[in-house]
Amino acid sequence: MNEIDHALPNDSYSSTIQSLGHLRAHLKLVFGNTDDLAVTAVRVGEQKGLLCYLETMTNVPFMMDNIVKPLSHFSVNDPNGSADALLEEMNEKYYGGLSGTYIRDLKEFTQKLAVGQAGLAVEGASFTLMLDVKQLDVRSVAEPTTQTVVRGPKDGFTESADTNMSLIRRRLVNEKLRFEKYTVGNQSQTSVYLAYIDGALDVELLRRIRARLQTSLTSSVLDSGNIEELLRPRELSLFPTVYNSERPDAVCAAIMEAKVAIIVNGSPFVLVVPAVMNDFFKSPEDHYQWFAFGTLTRVLRYLAFFFSLFVPSLYVAVTTFHAELVPTVLLISILAQREGIPFPAVIEILLMEITFEILREAGTRMPRVVGPAISIVGALVLGEAAVQAGIVSNINVIVVALTAISGFVAPIFTFGANVRLLRFGFIFLAAVLGFYGIILGSAFLLIHLVRLHSYGVSYLSPFIPFRIRAQKDGILIFQTPLPNDEGGGNGSHE
Amino acid sequence: MNKRNKLFLGIWIAALPFLLSGCWDNVELNKTSLITGAAFEPGSNGKIRLTIETMIADQLEGNKDTVPSVLQSAEGNTLSEILIRFNESMDRTLLISHVGVIIIDERLAKQGLLHLLDPMQRTRFIREDILILISKDVPASHLLKVLYPRGTLTSSKITSQVKSYRISYGGIPESRLFDISEALLSEGRELALGAISLKGSFKDANTLQSIKSVTPKASIVIAGTGVFSEDRLLGFLSLEDSRMLSLARNQVKGTTISIPNHDNTAIRLYHLHASLHAEMEKGELVMRMNLEGDGTVGSVDESIRLTSIGGYEQLERLGAEYLEKQMSATIKGVQRRFGVDIFGFGEQMYRKQNAQFMSISGNWNERFARTPVKVKAKIKLYRSELKTNHIRNEGIGP
Asked: Which PANTHER family does this chain map to (chain A) (predicted)?
């Protein structure tokens, strides 16, 4: 933008529309030789006119029917009227549904073109008419790929913010639901929408989020991940403090809990703040099932979290420092397997953990066609053969496998990913200081977690500070009591 | 100091504990060997001769051509000293923490256990629940050398054997390190430890050849109870007496008794409970023991008819009589042969009649030895398994 401003010769060039020739020149200057810019000469009544639009952002057949066709049988009521009056007449008569706006400023004109509006200029008019004929191809609503449920809604957000807002609006039929638009990114000019229920929300929370979005210096926003980066706390945090979801039901649930959802155009992941640790252990499905089963799965997720964080380090600590803690029979079995392994336990664990991380990364990035190759190489060659060759022990493979599976139980991928990173820290601590190191690390982790806040909400809430009412959706899920419908009440039946 | 320098310094300080002190007590598992069993014997040069059983781990992975363990002996004056000298003959760092069983030679036990106990109780690496047994009639180290066809370690064979025996028969008292400490510290109860011995010939029992046959050349058997006065071994009780001793100490989970003078009649007892009473009545010590238990009919002969309550009552009476007789005999035997209270009458008196006990605590064992004990038993039979009467009494057939 700035470069263009400099390129414009300010003194001789006016920033408002002078003539069609001037407009053409300006468009040439701003858009350069881009191929999708269409500048078509038209007749508006007796006047010369220009229709400008970006072919890639507009619905061209629709425009032919609804803009160009009316022009052809347009007869002027007052041939002597000014060009401005002509444009106004056109707009009011024919383009009522196209939310036409009048633009005087050239900079604004080009910006509107860039987001997919068509501009109609008439020789001699002091403004142009901008018409909304935007049409973009969007991916249709499909099942979410990252947060799947067995039972529950199967629709997921898409890359189009309009679709996403519609998905939310149709779930929350509430006139208090607000979508607030911001434009973030100097270069990309990405639309970002805050979704919240007016009145239910902490004003301070909204103020802080708005401030973050308005003051951002980001040049481009290509995914909601970029916005998440804007919303993080100022101090270092080892855990995500912004929740993300591909599921409209999860986001709607959050909005109803007086949280703010952030929809970023171009990303199917909608952000939610504030987010506490417990949110990352929730799956919307927990509440769609029998409450006891929901509780079981949630307890399992917490268990898996601890497994994922501690199992490899416990293994290292126990086998190198604290053999006396292991029950004899188990120790004998571990010993028999470790017999003849050339590496110390730490190296062995790190070897397999890193191997697994590489496998996982390869599995995520590689083309789908070569997918089976990875599983064969990974599972058979690395797992089976390494054990057979006596490079790693069976128990080590079990430990790494258990850890790996546990790492993927977290319903939100970003949380599991952070835990995986911390796990390496714990392995090092265990290798150097044994259990003492693990306890030390856990203490620091706990201190960090207690200090961490997400927009004023303690990260460990509702456990620290303990709120008894919030426990019904904590680790355990309780049933909501039903209203008393035995006798009495409003309805009567004979 | 700016923020970056502060962070850098912080990282350095955080790294110091690792760089300076880390790993000092790190021991890789595959560079260690587990001591799984130990045997104490009187030494010929030093005071004590210690034999340890260390596990060979890969044998347990299924390689049946090697022995499961290696035994080495060393002599010295103190236990702590001997323990650190094993690498004179062995390759790896030894881990003492998983000793499952310690066998003390009869000869050594007669000299007293105290000097052996202290190093074991002091270290944090030895568990309080390790089995401590006395070897009867054989040198303690011989017992560790007897192989068992399952291919397991001798020590784990012994541990498992003792545990199973306690569940099925009950003929061995609890003899963990913890129990020794408890007995030595308690008033009015003397120490009793389980004893094991060797059946068969020891010659070539320690080679693989001996376990290639379905009848091993030698096997370890449970041999009753070693009776102690303070920490010195006095002698041994038979298995039958050991069972009664365990019964009196409430350590029997279940056992089966055969009724004398009735062919093939037996009762399986469980929920056994003994209550001991000792008090002074008119200046005289009076001791009583009440036994209670539930039972099922193990087998009956034709003379007992279980279709009527009378049959059950008869059986209950017979069982109770037998228990009373056996228990009295055991107590009398202990009083006569050893003259020490291993049952815990004094302990009960110490707890319940403390003033009375304290007046005679000095010569408690003598008072115990010359006072008869009244035993009363009560058995309640609840079931007779799948059958009621003996098959001859079914009344079917000609």
From this structure: LEUCINE ZIPPER PROTEIN 4, SPORE GERMINATION PROTEIN
For residue A432, give the nearest of B23, B32, B55 by CB distance.
B23
Dihedral, CA of residue B121, residue B126, residue B131 and residue B134, to nearest 10: -60
Answer whether A320 sits within 8 Å of B36, measured CB to CB: no
Instruction: State the span(s) of chain B assigned CATH 3.30.300.210.
Output: 241-398
Q: Cβ contacts of residue B36 below 8 Å, gap of 6+?
A: A328, B53, B54, B55, B69, B98, B99, B100, B101, B153, B155, B156
B324: Cβ–Cβ under 8 A, 6 or more apart, which residues?
B291, B375, B376, B377
- Which of A310-324, A443-457, B143-157 has the lowest average pLDDT? B143-157
What's the pLDDT score for residue B384?
Answer: 87
Assess B62–A contact: CB distance below 8 Å, yes or no: no
Which residues does B117 contact at the CB level (< 8 Å), separation at least 6? B177, B180, B181, B184, B231
A490 in reach of chain B (CB within 8 A): no
**Which chain A residue's Cα is nearest to B20?**
A432
Q: H or E element: which one contains A41?
A: strand A37-44
Distance from CA of A240 to the nearest CA of B (A): 22
User: Do A332 and B17 lie within an 8 Å CB cutoff?
Assistant: no
Q: What is the value of ipTM here, to two decimals?
A: 0.81
What pLDDT, on the 0 to 100 scale, is given for residue B242?
Answer: 95
Superfamily of domain B241-398: Nutrient germinant receptor protein C, domain 3 (3.30.300.210)
Query: What would the two tokens of residue A213 be?
Result: 């979005």
Low-confidence ranges of chain B (pLDDT < 50): none
Nearest by CB: A339 against B22, B58, B100 = B58
Question: Is the CB of A395 inside 8 Å of chain B's CB atoms?
Answer: no
Band (pLDDT 50/70/90 cuts) for residue A301 is very high
A432 contacts B58? CB cut-off 8 A: no
On the question of pLDDT at A427 being above 90, the answer is yes
Residue bearing the bigger pLDDT, A310 or A461: A310
Residues of B in contact with A341 (CB under 8 A): 30
Please provide the DSSP assignment of A16-36 as one string: B---HHHHHHHHHHHHTT-TT
Q: Is A339 exposed, middle or buried (0-12, 13-18, 19+ CB in 10 A)?
A: middle
| Contact with chain B for residue A319, Cβ under 8 A | yes
Kindly state the average pLDDT of the residues A201-217: 89
Interval B186-222: pLDDT, tens? 988 999 999 999 998 888 777 777 777 788 888 899 9
* Residue A342 sits at the chain B interface (C-beta within 8 Å): no
Chain-chain contact of B98 with A331 (C-beta, under 8 angstroms): yes
Determine the residue among A234, A319, A433 to mutate to test chain B binding: the one whose Cβ has the most chain B Cβ atoms within 10 Å: A433
The residue assigned the tokens 């380090």 is A313
pLDDT tens for each residue of B137-149: 999 999 998 888 8
pLDDT at B324: 95
For the cut 50, the answer to whether the pLDDT of residue A4 exceeds it is no
Q: CA torsion, points B112, B117, B119, B121, in degrees to nearest 10?
A: -170
B84 vs B86: CA distance, rounded Å:
6
Rounded average pLDDT over A246-250: 93
Q: What is the reported pLDDT for A77?
A: 64
Residue type, A206: L
